[in-house]
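User: For a benchmark we're assembling, each entry needs the component sequences followed by a predicted structure for the full assembly. Here are entry 17's components. Please fill in the structure.
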Amino acid sequence: MSTCVMKRLDVWACRSDAVTLSEKLIRLQCVDVEVTPLKDDDITRFDASERIRDCEKRQQSVESALEPLYRYSNRKKKNGKRKLQTDPDDFVKAGGPADAQRIADGIISRKEELEALEKEETTIISFLRTLEPWREYEYPVDFSGTESTKFILGAVPVTVTDDVLDERLKDEAAAYREVYSSATMRNMVFISAARDAPSVLRRLNMCGFVRADFGEASGTAAELIRKCSERLKEIEKEKTDSDSMIRESAKNIEVLETYWDVIGTELAEARLRERLAATKNCVILRGWVPAVREEKTAAVLEKTDCAYELSDPDENDNVPVKLENNAFARNFEWVVAMYSLPAYGTYDPTFIMGICYVILFALMLADVGYGLLLVLGGFLAPKILHLPESTKRAFNMFGFCGIGSIITGVLFGGYFGDLPIAIMKTYFPEVTPPSTLALVVDPVLDPMTFLIIGLAAGVIHLLAGQAVNFAILWREGRKIDAVCDVGLVWVLYAGIALLIISPDVGKWVLISAVAALIITGGRNEKNWLKKPVKGLLALYGLINFGSDVISYARILAIALSGTVLAQVFNILATMVTVPVVGQIVMIVILLIGHVLNLALSALSGFVHTSRLQYIEFFGKFYIDGGRPYSPMLPSSRYTEPKYN
Amino acid sequence: MESTISMTLWDLLGKFLLNGQVLAVIGAALAAILPGFGSAKAVGSVGEALDGLMSEDPDKFGKGFLLEALPATQGLYGVIVAFIVITKVGVLGGTPVANIEQGLYYFFACMPIAFVGYYSAIRQGRVASAGVATIAKRPDASGKCVIATAMVELYALFALIVSFVFVFFPPFGA
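Assistant: Structure for entry 17:
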C-alpha cells in the first residue's frame, strides 16, 4: 500500500473571476492549494487582505454576541451536540447575513449598555459610602460658607480628640462640631473666619485630617442619599431589561452560529485567493487533488471560466501526502502522522503498524476489565459526544487496543488486576482461591516467562520491519540489495537459532552467513581496502538487533506496574471487612484506584507502544518527510455545510 | 566509663537499627521516598511550566497535561516495589525478616528503583517542561514532545524490573 495518488492542478483565470473560482474550489472540498511561487517580477501575490480584515471583524462581532447567549441557553458550546446541517446558500438567499448582523449588533449594544450601567452602579455605591456619615449634617454638602466664614468638611482619626483640636486651633478663629464618629474616624465640620481658613487647614492637615470630596454634587447628604438610592433602583430595572432582551435573543443562537460559519467560509475563500499568483489581468493557481476526485474536479472547472490542467506530479514537486486505509487501519493514521507522514509515493505502513500496535499495547495492558472499559469508551464515547472525525479516530484506536487487552487479559489473567481472587479471599475465606486466573502465564508470578513472551513479540515486530524493507527493496527492483542486506541477516538469525537446536548444522549456517555478510557488505564500495571494513560493519547490525530486542523488556515492566498497582488497590479496597461500611469503602477505593490505574497504564501503553513503532519498527524501512494533504474546506465550526 | 557508654550505644544500634527487619523497611521506605521525591519535583516543575502556558492559551491544557503525567510514574514504580516488600516482611502477609543478611538483601533490592527512579523522574521532568514550552509555540508537535519525554522512562522501567524480580523472588523464600 502506497500513499494516495495525487494529481497536480494548474488553473489560469481572469482576475475578475478569482472570487468565483475560489468559491467553487472551496465547495469541492478536495483541493490542496499551494502558495503559488512568484517566478517573475510582473507577477505579484493576489491581494485579499481587505476582505480578510472585513471578515475577521464581522466574525469577531458575532463571537462577542454569541458569548452572552451561551450563558442563557441550556445548550453546550460546541462539543456534545450534533452539528446543525445547513445549506449556506439558502441562508444567504433568505437574507440571513443581514438579519444575523442586525441581531449581533443589537446584542452587542445591549452588552455595552449593561457594562455602562454596571460601571455607574459601582460609582454610585462608592459615593453612597462617602455620603453615609454625613446623613445627619443639615447643610448642603456643597455649602462652603458665607462671605466671612468658611465651612470645612472632613474626617480626623479618632485619636484626635476635642482636647487635641482645642490645643491645635487655640490661636485661630475657628469652631468645630462632630457629625458622626465611626470606630476609626470622626467626621467633623469646621467653621472658621474666611481669612483664617488656609492656616486652619494647614494645622488640621498636620494631625491627619482628610477633607471630604463630594465632587459636583449639591444638596444635603440626606437628599443625595435618597436620590442615589432611587437611581440604583432604576439601574437595577434597566439592567434587568437589557438582560432579558439578551435572554430573548438566545433563541437566535443558531442563526448567529450559521452566520459565523458563512463568514468563515468567505474567509477561507479569501485566504485561498491570497495564495494565488496574479498578473494585471490574470491569476494562476497550483493545487493538488487526489486522483479519485480528478473527474469531479474537472467537471466543476469545466463549468467555470478558466483554463486548467490536471497532470501527474514530476520529481521537483512537493506533493502533499494523504493516507488511505481501511476502516481498521484508518484509526492509526494519526499515530503515523505524529511521527511524520511517509514521503509521497513511498510505502504506507499504517495497516501493519496498526496490527502490531494492538498486540504490543495489549501485552502492556493485559486486563479484561480495563480492556472492556477501553472498548466501551473508545467506541461509544465518539457516538454519544458527537466528536469530530479526527478525535473519533483516536478514540476508536483505543477501542481496538481494548479488544486486544481483553484477549491478553484472558491469557495472562488480568481482571481489574486480581479482583476476583481478592474478593474471594475476603468474602469466601473457606474457599481456597486459585493462585492465578491466567491461562498461559501470570506476569507477576512468573515474570521471566512473560519477559520472554514480550521479547519474542519484539523479535517478530523487528522481523516484520525487516520484511517490509525486503518487500520495498524487491519491488523497487533492488533484488540484490534485498537478498544481501536483509536475506543474509535472516540466514544469520536462523543460524543462531539452529545453534541452540542442533549445533552441528547451526554452526555451518552461522559461519556461512557471517562470511557472506562480510563479503557482500562492501559490494557498493569502490575502494578495495574499504570493502572488508564495510563488510564487518554489516555484522554490527546484529548488535543493533540485540539492543532493539532488549528495548521490548519495557513490555514486562509496564505490564508489571499496571498489574501490581491494580493488586495494591484491590488489597487496600478489601481491607475493611465491616459489613456495609466495608462494601462502600471497597467500591470507592476500587473506583478511584482503577480509574487512576487505567489512565496511567493506557498513557504508558500508548507512549511506549508508539515509541517502539517509531524507533524499532519504522527504523527498519521508513522514509519520512511527507507534507500533509490539507484541502481548503468551508468553515464548519458550528454547522455542517451541505451545498446542493 | 567511656567504653561502657559506647558499648551500650553499639548494642542499641545492633538491636534496633542493624537488624534485618529494620533494614528491609528502610529499603522499602527509600523505594517509596526517593522516586516520590523525584516525581513530585518533576511533576511540580512541569506543572509550573504548564500554568505559564495556561495564562496564554488555556485550550492547550490537554496536550500539556499528558506531559505533566509522564514523570509521575516513577513515584508509582517506587510504591509498587515498597508495597511488595511490605507484603513479604510480615506487615501485610509474609514472614518477618530472619537475619541481617536477608534485611540487607531487601535493602539493596530496593536501591535500583530508589535511585534510578529519583534521577530519571527529574530528568524526565526537564524534558517535559521543555515540551510544554514547545507546545506553546507549536501545538502540532505535542505528540513528538510526549515521545521524547517517554524516552527517559525506559531506565526507570529497567530499574523497576530489577527491583521487582529481586523483592518478589527472594532466594531464601518468604
